[in-house]
């Protein structure tokens, strides 16, 4: 902390010690060279500083500038222009349409490239677009903005979304993308304040990702944070505050309907049994359990930054505070972030710099990012609120919690009251780099990155008794600590030269070394006092103590190379290679080679086409490459040995210590390899106002990890072993189209749309059996991963109407035992007269066939408006909370139209307390359309704020997830999860929420 204080003190002295030259006032107007109309929103900046302004609705501007200044005029879609001020007090400028709009710079692996030179599939989203979304992390804000990227958000505070780039390409190896922040490889980016981000670049195809080798099979997300710029200090504040509410509520049966249903269910099963409810008194209690466990959520975010610099050094310091109180009572999260990015120019050819960030987070009930630490089942309160009978009060007249002996559902309010969960995390990330230019053509870069992450969590279960099914007779404290550290040293040399004005060559070579170490320590004791200041292990009963410790050390070495060739801005070639070594695999399989090649042809630069087509730019590209996936346990190829198996041996039968191998392993285990082909077309029309991209991709993962069954005689604990045995394919189309119009009379607008079609399929399993997952805890499972089907497909019985009479039941050979009128009829798929697993059918998966986003906005004078929409089609969701019944749980209000002898329904079965069979009745459409974000802002006139020495003041209101149109009858069709094998089952899920906020942006 002392070092940080010195740094901040020095920063303050730099800021306060600046001297300024005498300013002069310059006014003028910026117009379009095409039609002479004024251009609003043009950036007018004093070169080499952060001093500037923007033109108003008529294209006019006014600015105080130092003598000898040079003004820079720039606007998206227009050519930039520089004008020396000299003695001028009035400067009028004409900007022409930019004939090369696709030349924007994007970030690629270990460098940057012009967009026009990229032969792979790379998408970029600017930081200001992400900052419009009131979300915790940048990945949440990416939803709807990039084709080929599916974001599945969670409503839980502090929870990261599930990210899938071009489908799910693995079963057991981890399907999340690789994140790289300022050159630092990391698994999670929730520690980064969105306001600190300059851009997010998504690398999607093998040509773009192969430079990251064994870690890039699921795509790469590159995040670049802000840096200071030369000029006077710039201070900005961005903040918002607002509320969150449930986006959707499931309408449940009231007490009267529940009592009637329950009586019917008992009579169907046993006509002589006494009825559980008296309809005349059942409605005396009518509890809304969802309302009892929820509240109006609250969210706020505040971000403050100071930046600036000289020609010798630049700086940026930022601080952010984010907090959210979730709609589930007690689910709270807060995060404090600090960032310090500095760069020092020692000579024109030599620069040093660092990017440092520190993040501290705290959460209650919402869980921890480290699955090895204690967790809580608090989210199951939503399922219990769904299932608990409305005839049960939250509390009885004597203050005790209400319960019923007719079901085994917990009182969800008591569940939350008796759940004590806390987690804390502290993460430090930093990169220290040096950049040396040699002979003006060779650049040497060395970047040393570090990441240290410490987490602590505990769960305390006090002594309580609500009912015989909901009680805890001995208090228990479970606690865990997780510490990890990573260093990553990257060294690259890049040669860049142009020959004969037409041949441009860029060659990159480098070496990367990495070490990661983690340690997890967990312990528990009973009889810990209920006061929070005693939540320490030493206050418990020492004789009940349990503990465990685990950890690992992982190392990697890599050699990387890339060649870019450009001939006359027409013919493009990119070839990359990475040679990776990883300690996570046996010695004979530790090294792998991952090449790629991409070619591009800028047809619009051909002399025979230039000016003869409607295209301002037209580029075709084709690429091929290989990437890997090593996301397995570092001990997956090691045997585990159990001790304590004593045995008698010898003539005297002496007791000997015995040990045995408990698991069988594959000594030839190796990483998964994904081979991808990409064909794309990029274009620009209408003076570059309309830009678009169309891409076809085909990627196949081989050697995918799969579990093979083995005979019990071999002694393996679970009767299976992990091996490389499967192949998975994803193929599809991506489409993106954007229109930006800089209109006149103070009005401009933009519209963008992107869409993705993806087909996922498990193509082959060598000697393995299908994997059944998605268990509901009542003996039913819902998903199966099998050859010819998407990963995690729903595998259930097909309903075929409802038996209407006992005669129909008697005359049907294939039926479930105990079937009565009002029960489902199931299709006997193989015609053998028996309903068993051979009659199950695949009915789709959670993976969508199509998803798309729409983005748009406009500015009119001082007003601005933006919105984005997101839609997801063709996938399925399993209503797990509706299907997880054991008997006497509550029902949805829609069950009022159930089958009865006088209401011969063909869709809703009779009342029943039997455990439901996994069937198509519970498989619903996961398609939905949502208005992600709507923002309306107003910027105060410059004349009003200039007297306050403030450069910009903007107020805005935002609505997030304000409207969702869906077919699913549950809380939300968005079901994030890390396991692709059982995705899409709604059970113990935190619903997606809507947010309504007001914000303020101030610039000094």
Strand content: over 45%
Q: List segments where confidence is low: pLDDT < 50 over at least 5 consecutive residues.
A: 1-21
**Overall mean confidence score, pLDDT:** 88
* Biggest sheet features: 22 strands, antiparallel, barrel
Gap from first CA to last CA: 28 Å
* Basic shape: globular
What's the alpha carbon Rg, rounded to whole Å? 32 Å
How many DSSP E strands? 52
The helix content is under 10%
Describe this structure in words.
- The protein is mainly beta and 1004 residues long.
- Strand 38 (720-741) and strand 39 (747-765) form a beta hairpin.
- The strands form 12 sheets. It has a 22-stranded antiparallel barrel. Strands 10-15-16-13-14 form a 5-stranded mixed β-sheet. A 4-stranded antiparallel β-sheet has the order 3-2-5-6, with no helix packed on it.
- It has 11 helices and 52 strands.
């Amino acid at each position: 902390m002392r070092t940080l204080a010195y740094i901040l003190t020095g920063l303050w002295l730099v800021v306060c010690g600046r001297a300024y030259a005498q300013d002069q006032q310059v006014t003028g107007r910026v117009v379009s060279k095409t039609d002479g109309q004024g251009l609003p929103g043009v950036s007018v900046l004093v070169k080499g500083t952060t001093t500037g302004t923007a033109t108003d609705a008529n294209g006019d501007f006014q600015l105080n500038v130092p003598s000898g200044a040079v003004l820079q005029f720039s606007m998206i879609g227009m050519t930039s222009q520089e004008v020396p001020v000299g003695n001028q007090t009035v400067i009028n400028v004409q900007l022409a349409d930019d004939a090369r709009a696709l030349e924007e710079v994007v970030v690629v692996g270990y460098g940057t490239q012009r967009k026009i030179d990229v032969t792979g599939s790379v998408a970029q989203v600017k930081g200001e677009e992400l900052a419009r979304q009131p979300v915790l992390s940048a990945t949440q804000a990416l939803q709807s903005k990039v084709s080929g990227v599916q974001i599945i958000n969670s409503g839980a505070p502090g929870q990261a979304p599930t990210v899938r780039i071009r489908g799910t390409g693995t079963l057991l190896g981890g399907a999340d993308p690789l994140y790289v922040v300022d050159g630092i490889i990391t698994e999670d980016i929730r520690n980064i304040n969105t306001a600190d981000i300059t851009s997010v670049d998504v690398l999607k195809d093998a040509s773009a990702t192969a430079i990251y080798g064994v870690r890039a099979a699921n795509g790469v997300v590159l995040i670049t944070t802000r840096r200071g710029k030369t000029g006077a200090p710039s201070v900005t504040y961005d903040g918002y505050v607002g509320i969150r509410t449930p986006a959707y509520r499931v309408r449940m049966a009231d007490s009267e309907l529940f009592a009637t249903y329950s009586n019917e269910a008992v009579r169907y099963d046993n006509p002589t049994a006494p009825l559980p409810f008296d309809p005349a008194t059942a409605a005396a209690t009518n509890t809304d359990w969802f309302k009892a466990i929820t509240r109006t959520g609250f969210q706020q975010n505040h971000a403050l930054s100071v930046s600036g610099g000289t020609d010798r050094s630049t700086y940026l310091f930022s601080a952010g505070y984010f907090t959210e109180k979730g709609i589930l009572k007690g689910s709270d999260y807060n995060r404090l972030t600090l960032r310090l990015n500095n760069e020092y120019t020692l000579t024109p050819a030599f620069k040093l710099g660092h990017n440092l960030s520190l993040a501290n987070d705290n959460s209650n009930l919402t869980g921890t990012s480290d699955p090895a630490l204690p967790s809580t089942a608090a989210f199951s309160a939503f399922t219990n609120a769904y299932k608990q009978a409305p005839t049960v009060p939250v509390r009885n007249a004597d203050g005790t919690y209400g319960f019923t002996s007719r079901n085994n559902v917990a009182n969800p309010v008591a569940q939350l009251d008796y759940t004590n969960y806390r987690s804390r995390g502290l993460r430090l990330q930093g990169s220290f780099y040096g950049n040396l230019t040699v002979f003006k053509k060779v650049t040497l870069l060395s970047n040393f990155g570090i990441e240290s992450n410490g987490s602590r969590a505990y769960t305390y279960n006090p002594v309580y008794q609500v009912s015989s099914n909901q009680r805890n007779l001995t208090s228990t404290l479970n606690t865990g600590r997780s510490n990890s550290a990573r260093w990553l040293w990257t060294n690259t040399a890049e040669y860049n030269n142009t020959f004969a004005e037409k041949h441009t060559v860029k060659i990159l070579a480098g070496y990367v070394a990495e070490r990661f170490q983690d340690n997890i320590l967990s312990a528990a004791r009973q009889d810990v006092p209920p006061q929070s200041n005693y939540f320490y292990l030493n206050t418990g009963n020492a004789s009940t103590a349990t503990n465990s410790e685990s950890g690992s050390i992982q190392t990697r070495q890599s050699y990387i190379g890339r060649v870019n060739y450009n001939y006359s801005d027409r013919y493009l070639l990119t070839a990359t290679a990475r040679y990776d070594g990883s300690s996570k695999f046996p010695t004979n399989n530790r090294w792998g080679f991952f090449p790629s090649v991409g070619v591009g042809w800028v047809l619009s630069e051909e002399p025979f086409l230039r000016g003869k087509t409607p295209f301002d730019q037209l580029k075709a590209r084709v690429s091929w490459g290989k990437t890997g996936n090593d996301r397995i346990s570092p001990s997956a190829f090691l045997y585990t040995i159990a001790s304590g198996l004593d045995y008698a041996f010898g003539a005297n039968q002496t007791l000997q210590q015995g040990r045995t191998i408990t698991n069988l392993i594959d000594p030839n285990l190796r990483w998964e390899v994904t081979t991808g082909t990409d064909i794309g077309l990029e274009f620009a029309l209408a003076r570059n106002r309309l830009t678009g991209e169309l891409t076809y991709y085909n990627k196949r993962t081989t050697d995918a990890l799969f579990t093979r069954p083995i005979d019990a005689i071999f002694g393996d604990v679970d009767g299976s072993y992990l091996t490389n045995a499967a192949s998975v394919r994803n193929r599809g189309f991506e489409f993106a189209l954007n229109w930006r119009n800089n209109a006149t009379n103070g009005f401009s607008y933009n519209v963008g749309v992107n869409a993705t079609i993806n087909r996922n399929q498990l193509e082959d399993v060598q000697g393995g059996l299908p994997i059944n997952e998605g268990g509901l805890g009542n003996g039913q499972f819902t998903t199966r991963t099998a050859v010819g089907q998407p990963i995690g497909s729903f595998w259930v019985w097909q309903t075929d109407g409802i038996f209407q009479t006992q005669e129909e039941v008697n005359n049907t050979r294939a039926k479930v035992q105990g079937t009565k009128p009002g029960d489902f009829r199931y299709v006997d798929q193989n015609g053998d007269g028996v309903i068993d697993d051979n009659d199950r059918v695949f009915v789709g998966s959670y993976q969508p066939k199509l998803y798309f986003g729409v983005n748009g906005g406009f500015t009119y004078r001082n007003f601005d408006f933006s919105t984005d929409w997101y839609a997801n089609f063709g996938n399925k969701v399993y209503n797990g909370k509706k299907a997880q019944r054991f008997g006497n749980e509550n029902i949805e209000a829609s069950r009022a139209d159930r089958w009865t002898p006088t209401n011969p329904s063909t869709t809703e079965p009779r009342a029943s307390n039997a455990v439901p069979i996994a069937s198509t009745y519970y498989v619903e459409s996961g398609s939905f359309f949502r208005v992600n974000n709507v923002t309306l802002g107003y910027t105060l006139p410059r004349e009003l704020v200039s007297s306050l020495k403030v450069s910009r003041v903007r107020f805005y209101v935002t609505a997030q997830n304000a409207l969702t149109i869906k077919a699913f009858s549950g809380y939300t069709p968005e079901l994030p999860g890390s396991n692709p094998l059982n995705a899409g089952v709604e059970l113990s899920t935190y619903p997606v929420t809507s947010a309504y906020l007001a914000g303020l942006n101030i610039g000094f």
